[in-house]
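> call design_seq(struct)
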């Protein structure tokens, strides 16, 4: 670069230091006049296309490669017709920013937003400080939306993340990405396809105007597992045995199965159904739901929900077991009454045994024991983790105390 600058420069030789200090160039129309005491050293006019321009082009290429600057002038300057594939390939290549470039922007931007949020939700930030009016207005609007005041003081700002824009900030790259997603839209659910359509409209008119064409939706997203769980309930009630699969959404299945068990118990308490009529389908659903609990506990992200369903199933299992004991006691009483009536010569129809058969009773006992064992295992793990934490804390306290003792701090 230095050689290119030297070869493309005009050489001027001052006569002395004063001439160098007074060096200036004055233009009079087509003439350029140097101050006295300076003279131009005659030399051949340099060829800039062979010495300076290659260096400039190389530096521009390096800048383009390092920063990912986007420019479509190079391809679309002429009038040549191009296919859609050519245009999309060129846009994808020229508008793609490197991961390093994105991180160089998003990392400090994320820290900036975290600091803004930390100040906004600081209770000591009042209306008399810069931007305080907007802070007070934001807090009032959050309270109107139902956000409790104590929630604003427990925000973990270090875990707040910036939602990165599609396309890395390039409108062309964003449009290209959304067009590529449109080819996969057939495999999306209804909410996913609507969100994609909303994003494509917003890419053209902005999100403020997107509601005019594709309103935002806050409805829950139903899954196929909900319908499968409902169909499973129907088959289980009819006496079929269905095994849970490992690739199913266990929390969704458990929600549907537990709701059906609750409906059975509500019907018994309201007198709309007899326990003897529904005890066997309840055991079938209970056994199937137990399998979902055992498979669902393998996912660390759903451990809390699975434990809640396990406790509910334990309660239902105890209620089924207690109801089964009542049915057995009622069957024995009716049998005794029938024997006494037969001894007296009375014709009494035999009592119907509404209790569980031995196989169903064995399943119920087995499932209750498995749920209880899993619950005890979970409690033991939690106790072990608590003891391990206390032990590490004690070791850290002892280490810090030893450091302070060595420093002479009491």
């Amino acid at each position: 670069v230095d050689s290119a600058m030297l070869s493309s420069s005009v050489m001027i030789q001052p006569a002395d230091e004063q001439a160098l200090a007074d060096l200036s160039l004055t233009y009079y129309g087509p003439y350029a006049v140097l101050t006295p005491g300076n003279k131009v050293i005659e030399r051949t006019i340099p060829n800039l296309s062979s010495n300076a321009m290659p260096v400039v082009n190389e530096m521009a290429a390096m800048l383009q490669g390092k920063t990912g600057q986007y420019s479509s002038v190079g391809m679309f300057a002429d009038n040549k017709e191009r296919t859609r594939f050519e245009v999309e390939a060129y846009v994808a290549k020229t508008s793609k920013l490197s991961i390093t470039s994105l991180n160089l922007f998003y990392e400090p931007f994320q820290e900036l937003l975290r600091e803004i949020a930390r100040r906004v939700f600081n209770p000591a930030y009042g209306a008399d400080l810069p931007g305080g009016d907007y802070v007070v207005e934001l807090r009032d609007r959050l309270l109107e939306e139902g956000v409790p005041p104590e929630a604003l003081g427990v925000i973990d700002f270090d875990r707040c993340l910036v939602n990165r824009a599609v396309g890395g900030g390039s409108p062309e790259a964003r449009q290209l990405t959304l067009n590529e997603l449109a080819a996969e839209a057939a495999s999306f659910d209804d909410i996913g396809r609507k969100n994609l359509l909303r994003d494509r409209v917003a890419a053209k008119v902005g999100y403020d105007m997107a509601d005019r064409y594709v309103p935002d939706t806050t409805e829950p997203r139903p899954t196929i597992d909900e319908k499968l769980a409902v169909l499973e309930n129907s088959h289980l009630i009819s006496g079929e045995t269905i095994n849970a699969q490992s690739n199913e959404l266990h929390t969704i299945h458990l929600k549907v199965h537990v709701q059906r068990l609750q409906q059975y118990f509500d019907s018994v308490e309201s007198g709309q159904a007899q326990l003897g009529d529904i005890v066997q389908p309840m055991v079938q659903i209970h056994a199937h739901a137990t399998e979902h609990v055992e498979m669902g506990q393998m996912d660390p992200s759903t451990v809390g929900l699975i434990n809640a369903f396990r406790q509910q199933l334990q309660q239902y299992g105890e209620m089924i077991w207690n109801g089964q004991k009542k049915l057995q006691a009622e069957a024995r009483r009716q049998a005794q009454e029938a024997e006494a009536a037969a001894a007296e010569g009375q014709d009494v129809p035999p009592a119907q045994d509404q209790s569980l058969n031995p196989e169903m009773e064995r399943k119920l006992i087995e499932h209750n024991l498995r749920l209880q064992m899993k619950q005890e295992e979970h409690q033991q793990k939690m106790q072990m983790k608590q003891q391990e934490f206390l032990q590490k804390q004690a070791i850290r306290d002892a280490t810090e105390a030893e450091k302070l003792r060595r420093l002479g701090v009491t």
